[in-house]
């Protein structure tokens, strides 16, 4: 191929990744991450690729890469988790990985080859600890759509309300609905281990995958295939260890469950350390205490992984409802059974499927126009990205499309 790779290719790649589902503001640490993970040719290919999911022929046509070279580059990127290849409609569809969920997780889950894991951990930690950069750009303006939602422990729900729990809220039901599973290294725990901040005794191998994405995880060595029994044993162990369960923020197409501890998980730390509660969408439940039977032992205060519970003036626990995610870890630790999960007064909005979640997430973050006009090589698409993007960023427009009144019709139109 005759074109030359520009010396500012990593800056272009940074802008491309920043235009996906998660905003990734540029700084020197992000620059260092890109140079560490991508070759200049890989960076050039990603800059030329469509923003959305595309088949091989479409990518070849748009990027103008010679087929054999393109195949080799895509295979290499997929093996590193920098591009995802998912089998759909009789063939593989390729999609550029965003930073979260994508580049960070897959990089820290890698087990093949000569790996510079300690340096990767240092760079990711440095980037994420500058909370105004990543957290602030994605959740600092009252954004409500996150890739993750909390799953309530079924045993923590008050018996009078248990019959109302929906299937997509039950971890056991999600697992039971599939027949292929994989478990891999928790990226957050792995990162904290390498920088010396892992203070828990939770094993690294906890990250659970099922459904269509399982094949991707196994093929590229990010996870090992396990049986349904092993999957349920992993779930039972997390319950015993008091880990927060989180899954895809959707009602359908759910493909993973994270098993999160308060000391390592970057999502939970986004709440407890940096004050961004919407980084994990709550379940439809919230922790509440029956003061009449509470023994004031303080176990729930100690067990809450995000510090949402404190001792009240009367000695009984006080739940901060503004940050409680409704996971039920506190209720599982309550020996008097005074603390239980009860249904929230207003049902939490969870998108119907991944399509809806991605559309709404991009709308909130000002990148939806990139999915609508995805060819970076066409001048007409570049013009429309600028024009439509400017329109969608207008606060009244964004607020109207996200509202209960217009959201369903807007999503229905895009789906068609």
Query: SS-based structural class?
Result: alpha+beta
Write down the CATH class of the largest domain: Alpha Beta
Q: Give the uncertain stretches in residue-range form.
A: none
What is the domain tally? Answer: 3
Strand content: 5-15%
Terminus-to-terminus distance: 38 Å
Q: Taking strands numbered 1, 2, ... along the chain, how are they ordered across the largest sheet?
A: 4-8-9-6-5-7
- What is the CATH architecture descriptor of the largest domain? 2-Layer Sandwich
User: What's the number of helices?
Assistant: 21
Computed over alpha carbons, the radius of gyration is: 22 Å
Q: Could you give a short account of the major beta sheet?
A: 6 strands, antiparallel
Proportion in helices: 40-55%
CATH topology of the largest domain: Alpha-Beta Plaits
**Strand runs, count:** 13
What are the defining features of this structure?
globular, 3-stranded antiparallel beta sheet, single chain, 45% helix, 21 helices, alpha+beta, 3 domains, Arc Repressor Mutant, subunit A, 6-stranded antiparallel beta sheet, 416 residues, Alpha-Beta Plaits
């Amino acid at each position: 191929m005759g074109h030359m790779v520009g010396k500012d290719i990593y800056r272009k790649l940074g802008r491309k990744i920043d235009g996906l589902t998660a905003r990734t503001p540029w700084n020197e640490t992000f620059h260092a991450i890109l140079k560490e993970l991508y070759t200049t040719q890989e960076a050039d290919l990603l800059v030329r690729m469509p923003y959305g999911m595309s088949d091989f022929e479409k990518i070849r046509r748009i990027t103008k890469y010679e087929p054999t070279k393109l195949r080799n580059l895509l295979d290499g990127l997929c093996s590193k988790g920098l591009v995802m290849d998912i089998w759909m409609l009789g063939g593989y569809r390729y999609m550029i990985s965003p930073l979260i969920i994508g580049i960070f997780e897959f990089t820290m889950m890698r087990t093949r080859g000569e790996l510079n894991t300690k340096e990767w951990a240092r760079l990711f930690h440095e980037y994420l600890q500058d909370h105004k950069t990543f957290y602030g750009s994605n959740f600092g303006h009252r954004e409500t759509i996150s890739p993750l939602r909390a799953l309530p422990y079924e045993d923590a729900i008050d018996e009078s309300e248990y019959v109302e729990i929906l299937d997509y809220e039950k971890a056991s039901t999600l697992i039971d609905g599939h027949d292929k599973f994989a478990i891999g290294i928790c990226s957050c725990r792995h990162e904290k281990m390498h920088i010396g901040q892992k203070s828990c005794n939770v094993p690294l191998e906890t990250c659970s995958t099922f459904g269509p994405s399982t094949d991707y995880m196994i093929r590229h060595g990010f996870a090992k295939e396990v049986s349904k029994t092993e999957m349920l044993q992993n779930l039972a162990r997390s319950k015993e260890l008091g880990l927060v369960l989180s899954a895809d923020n959707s009602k359908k197409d759910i493909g993973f469950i994270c098993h999160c501890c308060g000391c390592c998980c970057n999502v939970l730390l986004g709440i407890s350390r940096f004050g961004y509660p919407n980084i994990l969408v709550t379940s439809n439940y919230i922790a509440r205490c029956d003061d009449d039977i509470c023994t004031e032992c303080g176990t729930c205060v100690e067990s809450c992984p995000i510090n949402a519970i404190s001792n009240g003036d009367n000695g009984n626990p006080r739940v901060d409802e503004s940050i409680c995610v409704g996971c039920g870890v506190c209720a599982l630790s309550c020996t008097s059974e005074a603390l239980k999960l009860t249904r929230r007064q207003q049902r939490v909005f969870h998108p119907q499927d991944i399509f809806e979640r991605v559309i709404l997430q991009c709308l909130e973050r000002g990148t939806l126009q990139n999915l609508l006009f995805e060819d970076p090589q066409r001048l007409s698409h570049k013009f429309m990205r600028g024009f439509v993007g400017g329109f969608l960023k207008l606060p009244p427009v964004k607020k109207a499309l996200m509202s209960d009144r217009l959201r369903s019709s807007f999503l229905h139109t895009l789906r068609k």
